[in-house]
Specification:
Blueprint: H1 2-9, H2 15-28, H3 30-58, H4 63-87, H5 99-104, H6 106-127, H7 129-146, H8 157-177, H9 180-211
Helix pairs in contact: 2-6, 2-9, 3-4, 3-8, 6-8, 7-8
Length: 214
């Protein structure tokens, strides 16, 4: 598996190829990825449910705290997912990429980030529709209660809301993890470009020494 990953990884690719092949890599290996990452997906679902419930079920002034918790949850999910997939050899371990290489590939990095962010935004919106409905219903009920009207929501609405948040969070965990594919192959393309650059520089230096050798 490690050799196959290396063959897939170390290829010169454009930003478009990194995105296309990266998502293909993710979905073609989704069954193995799911078996490996479902525990952290559950943890992410709990954290994201808490983050969503804080301004909805507790107090509206907790919106900022909920947003910060959601952001931290995404970062922890991506870091943990990357490390687990590398430990299980689904992702090839590679050497560190020099800072100059990151600068040389700034255009590719920006394009991949923009496309992945746009794709994730659409998928998050789709998976968040049940959450938005529950949020709107809870907020409308709270406004009515504050206005003096009786609560029109059933007693188990809080548990129903949390269940919806948990399911949506679990689905969104794999939406966020999908970015690992494009960035994994982008890293491989950068490493391959650096290897080819070094080979070219060595060849050029060798030929120059042959020409100017006395």
């Amino acid at each position: 598996m490690e050799k196959d990953n290396e063959n897939i990884l170390l290829k010169s690719r454009s930003s478009r190829a990194c995105i296309r092949d990266g998502y293909h890599f993710y979905f073609s290996n989704f069954k193995r990825i799911f078996k490996t990452t479902w525990p952290i997906a559950i943890v992410f679902a709990v954290l994201s449910a808490v983050a969503s419930a804080m301004p909805v079920l507790l107090a509206p002034n907790l919106t900022l705290a909920g947003g910060l918790l959601a952001t931290v949850s995404v970062l922890l999910l991506l870091i943990a997912g990357w490390r687990i997939l590398r430990r299980r050899q689904l992702l090839e371990k590679t050497a560190r990429i020099p800072f100059k290489s990151w600068l040389r590939h700034t255009g590719m990095i920006l394009i991949i980030c923009i496309v992945c962010f746009f794709t994730i935004s659409i998928l998050i919106m789709l998976t968040s529709l049940p959450m938005v409905i529950m949020m709107a219903a809870n907020w409308q009920n709270q406004i009515g209660v504050l206005s003096g009207d009786p609560s029109g929501m059933p007693d188990n609405v809080r548990w129903l809301t949390l269940a919806v948040f948990l399911i949506a969070g679990f689905l969104q965990a794999y939406v966020w993890l999908s970015v690992i594919g494009p960035f994994y192959l982008m890293r491989g393309a950068m490493i391959q470009d650096e290897n080819e650059r070094q080979k070219f520089n060595k060849k050029e230096t060798y030929e120059t020494n042959l020409i100017y050798r006395p």
